[in-house]
Amino acid sequence: MPPGDARADPPPKTLDDFRRERGEGWQWARAQSEQCPQCGQNAAALDRALLGPALLRSADEWRSFLVAADDAYLRRVPAPGVFSPIQYGSHVRDIQHVYGDRILLMLEEDNPVFPQFNPDEASWNAFNEIEAEILAAQIRDEAQRLADILDGLEPDDWSRTMIRDGGSDGVYSFTVAGLASYAVHESHHHLLDANGTLDDARGATEGSR
User: Fold this and answer.
1) 3-class DSSP assignment, residue 158
2) Percent of the chain residues topping a pLDDT of 90
3) Phi, psi of 171 (to 5 degrees)
4) CA 79, CA 58: separation in Å to the nearest integer?
5) How far apart are CA 104 and CA 107, in angstroms?
6) Which of 72, 48, 81 is CA-nearest to residue 153?
7) What per-residue confidence (pLDDT) applies to 93?
8) What's the fold here for domain 46-207?
9) Which residues make beta-bridge pairs with 173?
10) Of 27-31, 101-105, 186-190, which range is least confident?
11) What span, in angstroms and rounded, lies between the C-alpha atoms of 151 and 50?
12) Within 10 Å of residue 35's Cβ, how many Cβ atoms?
């Protein structure tokens, strides 16, 4: 740095910085109403009665993957801003729990406001320590809880709303139906991330247009 130049070195990039650069996830709110442009799934097009079963089916697929995959592969972080398969699975587990809690509150309050669910880097590091079979059981338990919540909804409940305030990442409105569709998409999409087949799914989607 030249003498007298007061410019400081830029701060190190955070996990969120890397994710923004990769374009990962920041427009996923569209999954509540349209087909995902990356994985091709259209959870929003499912009949509402099929959302819970879709969560359970995805949880079973997660279990099959987690118990069969090599442990070293499950814990490998491929690149900055990309998660290991165990980390993706832990995120799916937590999303299902958080979304279940949010739906329950949406039934009690009119248009509640929530922050974007965004674990810190220490949490992501801790995720990578969990045993695969334990995680598989946890994903199934949370999927069952959320499916049970959806199964208990009255017809008018599906249209109740919330606001997710993601700050610089956007402010979005969700219905209960939209949030449930979003949860189904998260589980499906991140399993493709984890098992390395997202690019295959993207190619198949693009080829069908």
Assistant:
1) helix
2) 64
3) -115, 125
4) 26
5) 5
6) 48
7) 97
8) Four Helix Bundle (Hemerythrin (Met), subunit A) (1.20.120)
9) 163
10) 27-31
11) 10
12) 16
